[in-house]
Amino acid sequence: xxxKKGGKPVVKxxxxxxxEAKVKKNLEGIAGKVYTDFTxxxxxxxxxxxxxxxxxxxxxxxxxxxxxxxxxxxxxxTQDGAYTLLRTMHSIDFIKEMIDQNKSSTLREMYYIxxxxxxxxxxxxxxxxxxIEDLEVVTLDMREDFKLRPEEDGARVIGDLxxxxxxxxxxxxVINCRDDVGDAGYTIPYNVEKDRIKFIKNKCKFIxxxxxxxxxxxxxxxxxxxxxxVLLVHLKGQPARSTRRxxxxxxxxxxxxxxxFTDGDPWSFRIYASVAYGAIKTAHISExxxxxxxxxxxxxxxxxxxxxxxxxKLNDQDIRALKAELNDPRFNTQFWKNEIRLMLEMGxxxxxxxxxxxxxxxxxxxxxxxxxxxxxxx
Length: 378
Known about the structure:
By secondary structure, this protein is an alpha/beta fold. It has 2 domains: 2-149, Winged helix-like DNA-binding domain superfamily/Winged helix DNA-binding domain (Arc Repressor Mutant, subunit A), CATH 1.10.10.10; 156-374, Dna Topoisomerase Vi A Subunit, Chain: A, domain 2, CATH 3.40.1360.10. Helix content is 41%, strand content 19%. The chain has helices spanning 14-39, 79-101, 107-113, 125-139, 213-221, 224-227, 241-254, 266-277, 286-289, 301-306, 316-325, 334-346, 362-374, and strands at 2-3, 9-10, 45-49, 56-59, 64-67, 71-75, 105-106, 148-149, 156-158, 161-166, 172-176, 186-187, 197-202, 206-210, 230-234, 258-261, 295-298, 312-313, 348-349. The chain has a 6-stranded mixed β-sheet. A 3-stranded antiparallel β-sheet has the order 11-10-13, covered by helices on one side. A two-stranded antiparallel ribbon has the order 1-2. The longest helix is centred in the N-terminal third of the chain and has 26 residues, at 14-39. It is globular, with a radius of gyration of 23 Å. The chain starts with a strand and ends with a helix.
């Protein structure tokens, strides 16, 4: 039994204790390897899959990004390498201490905590973030297992889904993500693993993942979640890891189809791709974060034409991004090639809110029903 500040006991399940023991063992394996090298008078080192663009491969079978076979050596052979190993040992010790004391920290806090590590302190947060990614890749654990939290706020969910959430005290509370929340919905926590969030009852038929908060609020106000038995998820732009993980779990454990509804521009297309196939930066945990069966609803270039939507002109960055997507394996389907080429030909992009041209109810009364019917969802 662990204790939080104030002496309040936190009761951990056997599953949680076993998971924490596994994480510590994996970290100790790295430290043990370095220690053994020292005792054998060898230059200490450990291997990490190379996190370079050339070592990222798209797995056609699983439809997600993964690291290839190239590896990078983290060695004390150079002064910079020795500093990296020293920081690694301090970071492992810090993570183990948090697990033992039932604490957590943000990535930013860890960066500042290193100020007390002497020669091991980080010069930038980018250094500390990349080191944590190293530890994730080598141990196959996630930063959430290391008790490290992101800085960004959680996204929102609303719909007839009942969950059981383990709260700070270790107690559990049951929440219906429609009836027990306000219009803002249920806020997704940074850790949505099974020991924290369990799905108790689901009456939703599918998920609509929305890029913008404005469109999320529009669908909630119009009662789209209740009228169509849908779970609405606000992606909040490029979705946080916890949001993508929750979508993946809902898709695999509750058999809920995931439909992405974003703006109509190359950057929003990439938001969809990160949900469906994973992102290059998190290729080591794509199986946990990606939902390959996720479908893109819109806004498409065809929508801009068919619904005569208001548009903005593509800028040079937009054009370069669209051309790059034509060679991106995540967009290697006839649908995407046609839509990207049409957008380049038009030289135009559009936003979700452009549908308001036809009134505030158009998106829920006409656009979404028509598109979802075409997809076989409604």
